[in-house]
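Human: I would love a firmer grasp of how sequence relates to backbone shape in proteins. Could you go through the record with me and say what the backbone is doing? Here is the record:
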Amino acid sequence: MYRDTLSLTGPVLPVVSFLARLPTAMCQLGSLLLVAETSGSLATAGLVGGALAAGQTVAGPLVGRLADRRGQRPVVLAAALGNAAAVTALVLAALAGTATAALMALGVLAGATVPQIGPLARSRSVTLVRRAGADERAVATVLSVEGTLDEISFVLGPALVGVAATVAHPAAALLTAAALMAVCGSAFALHPSASAVTPPPAATRTSAAERPRLPSGTYALRGAMVLQGAMFGAAQAGITELTGRLGVPDQAGLVYAAMGVTSALAGFAMAAVPAGIGLTLRWRLATAALVVLSVPLVLVSSLGWLYAAVVVLGVAYAPHLITVFGLTERSAPPGRLAECMAFLTSGIVAGQALALAVSGRLAESHGAPAAFAVAAGAAVACAVLSWAARQPSAPTAPAGSDGVRRAVAAP
C-alpha cells in the first residue's frame, strides 16, 4: 500500500516536505534555549516562546486560506523565505541583547511566517491521490504517512537543537533551521506537485461571503485538536517536573522522544486498519485509548515507570491525530482543504502552549501528578467530544469545481 501511494505522490515530495517541517520543530525549543542563555532569564525565554506560538496559532489558518485561494507555490515560497529571515533576525537580536518587547515582536513574526508545510503537504498529497482515482485506502495511507512524518520531525527537531546547543550554541541550531527552511521550504513550494493544488482563476476572486460554509462537525474536530495539544503540553510539563525532581533533568527530552517514537510507529501502522472500521469509530476508539493510557501517568513516581507509561501512551497519539485529519479531509468543502488542515495544526499549537503554561504552574506547586491529571482530563474531554459531536459528512464537489473531491458515505 505504501509503495502504491508513493507511486502516486512521487518519492521526492515526502522527503522534501519532511525536511521542510524540521525547522518548525526546531524553533520552539531553539528560541527558548537561545533567549534563556543570552538574557539569563527563563521568564523572558518563556515570553518569547509564547509569542512565537501565538503568531503561529493566529496566522496558520490565514496561510492555509491564502494557499487555497492563491495556490501553494507563491504562498509557501514567500512564507518560507520570510520565516528564514525572521528567525535569523531573532537570533541576531538575542545575541545583541535586544529588549524583551522587541524579541517578542520578532517571535510573533517568526511564528506568523511558518509556511504550514505539514497541513499543505497533506492537502497536496491527498489531492494527487484523489486525482489519480485511488480509493479511500490510499487516502488513509497518505494521511498515515503524513502523520508519521510529523511525529518524526517533532522528535528529531528538538534532538537536533539539543545536539547543536551542546556542541556549539543555541544560535547555531536556529541559524541551521533558518537555512533549512530557506532551502527545503522553497523546494517544497517549487516542486511540480504544487500545480495540483493551484486553484482556477475564478477561485481567486471568491469573496469571504461566497466561500462554502463549513459543516458544524468540523468545529468539533478543531476542538479535539486543541485538547490533543493540551495533552502534549501537560505531559511535557509533568515529564519536566518529574525528571527534575528525580535528579535527571537531562532525561526529559529523551522521555518525550520515546513517546514520539511509539506514536510514529503507530501512525505508520494505521494504513493496515481494515477499511470496514469507519473513521467515526476509529475516532471514538482512539479517544478511549487516550483516556485509558493517560491514567497511569498520574501514578508514576520513578524514571523507569515514566518511560513505560509514555511509551504506551504514545501508541494512542498518532492514531487520534491521523483520524481527525481524515475526518476533516472528508468533510472540508472543495477549495478550503488547506485552510481546514492548518486550523487543526494551529489548534495543537494553541492547546499545547496554554496547557504548558497552566500545567507548569501546577507542577511547580503540586508536583508532576497535577500536570499529568490535566493531560488525563483533556483526554476525557476529547472522548466526550468524539461521542457527542455531530459527525461530518463529505460534501459533493459543487458545479464548476475540478471534480477532485467525491462524496463519501459516513461510516
Q: What stands out?
A: Residues 395-411 have pLDDT under 50 and may be disordered. DSSP finds 14 helices and no strands in the chain. The two ends are 22 Å apart (CA to CA). Residues 11-196 form a domain with the Growth Hormone; Chain: A; fold (CATH 1.20.1250.20).
